[in-house]
């Protein structure tokens, strides 16, 4: 005997299968810096099958990478710190010397780098559907920002070298207008580097040519890494010359035993220690990542790229801390901005060309 709908003459229909879970469909994989889509088996960040209205980004069907969260948080902190440095420099009329203009250039570069990290996170997880123009624009922003950061550090090193090598004529030769022109030229060059992905120097049409920094190609990533290593070698060479000049000055000061000379020696030692801290931190943060960019490609596990890229981005987090806590003028401005007073422990000595 038939039971159910068939017994009443209704056609039999098969029972529907279990509903497919969201997030298991074919998801498009947007790029980011660094490339989390490096090797085989890397899960796509976006969740397909959720459909519009189910939530923006991977939260609808996929998980957000903890590495990307860490990079975004680092970028936010970097942007906040360097925005504070720029505000202090902008609203303090006494901080108009060429050396502070170079510090401002470095702070601006690090600020844009932090914003670039946040923009990459937004493009990767919030922009649906993914846009190639937004992806290339975010990658270009990071390239320009980090290039400007490296060049600003090189400019600070050159400035310290000239302040010691040409101590008598430094203030007359290194005018504010000349420094502004050099900084502007440097930024135009770095912005040109940032435009390269948008001008076709990318691997969006050939995924096999991608480097660990998608959408930058392997060849272009190698060129950037070699250029970085050469610039760092130049910075180290200048630093060695600065040390030689400082030691020679120290010997002369030991003979003279004058108060002014002693003050200059103290300023020189402080500048050298600050410069050593900046370059040492820069080397520890960036050299491992630069070397890895030379030998690795997009088939390497993404965790290696993330574990080296995160310390590299932290260099932009450390730079403003060095300036805020070691430069007396910036410290005084911060105290005035925060509490309206300056602690009595601050030295009243005038600023010299050896301070950083």
Care to describe what's here?
It is a single chain. This protein is mainly α. 63% of the residues lie in helices and 0% in strands. The chain has helices spanning 66-91, 98-125, 132-165, 170-173, 176-195, 218-256, 259-295, 302-326, 328-339.
Strand content: under 5%
Shape from CA axes? globular
Structural class call reads: mainly alpha
Major sheet description: none
Compute the number of strand runs.
0
Determine the fraction of residues in helical runs and give it as a percent range. Answer: 55-70%
Report the end-to-end length measured between terminal Cα atoms: 96 Å
- Show unreliable segments: 1-32, 35-61, 348-356
Order of helices and strands: HHHHHHHHH
What's the pLDDT, averaged over the residues? 76
Report the total helices.
9
Radius of gyration: 27 Å
């Amino acid at each position: 005997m038939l039971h159910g709908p068939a017994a009443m003459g209704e056609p039999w229909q098969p029972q529907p299968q279990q509903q497919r879970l969201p997030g298991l469909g074919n998801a498009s994989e947007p790029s980011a810096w660094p490339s989390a889509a490096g090797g085989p088996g890397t899960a796509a960040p976006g969740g397909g099958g959720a459909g519009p209205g189910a939530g923006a980004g991977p939260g609808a069907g996929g998980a957000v990478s903890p590495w990307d969260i860490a990079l975004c948080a680092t970028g936010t902190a970097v942007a906040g710190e360097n925005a504070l440095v720029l505000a202090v420099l902008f609203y303090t009329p006494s901080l108009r010397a060429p050396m502070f203009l170079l510090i401002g250039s470095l702070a601006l570069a690090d600020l844009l780098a932090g914003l670039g990290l946040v923009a990459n996170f937004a493009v990767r997880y919030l922009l649906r559907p993914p846009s190639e123009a937004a992806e290339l624009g975010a990658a270009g922003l990071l390239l320009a920002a980090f290039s400007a950061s490296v060049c600003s550090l090189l400019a600070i090193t050159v400035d310290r070298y000239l302040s010691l090598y040409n101590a008598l004529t430094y203030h007359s030769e290194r005018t504010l207008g000349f420094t502004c022109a050099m900084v502007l030229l440097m930024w135009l060059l770095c912005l040109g580097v940032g435009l390269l992905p948008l001008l076709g120097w990318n691997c969006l049409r050939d995924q096999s040519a991608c480097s660990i920094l998608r959408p930058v190609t392997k060849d272009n990533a190698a060129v950037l890494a070699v250029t970085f290593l050469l610039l760092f070698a130049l910075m180290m060479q200048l630093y060695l010359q600065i040390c030689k000049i400082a030691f020679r000055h120290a010997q002369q000061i030991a003979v003279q035993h004058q108060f002014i000379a002693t003050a200059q020696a103290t300023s020189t030692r402080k500048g050298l220690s600050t410069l050593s801290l900046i370059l040492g931190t820069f080397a520890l943060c960036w050299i491992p990542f630069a070397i890895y960019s030379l030998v690795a490609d997009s088939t390497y596990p993404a965790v290696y790229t993330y574990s080296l890229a995160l310390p590299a981005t932290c260099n932009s987090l450390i730079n403003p801390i060095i300036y805020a806590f070691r430069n007396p003028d910036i410290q005084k401005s911060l105290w005035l901005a925060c509490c309206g007073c300056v602690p009595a422990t601050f030295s009243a000595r005038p600023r010299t060309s050896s301070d950083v």
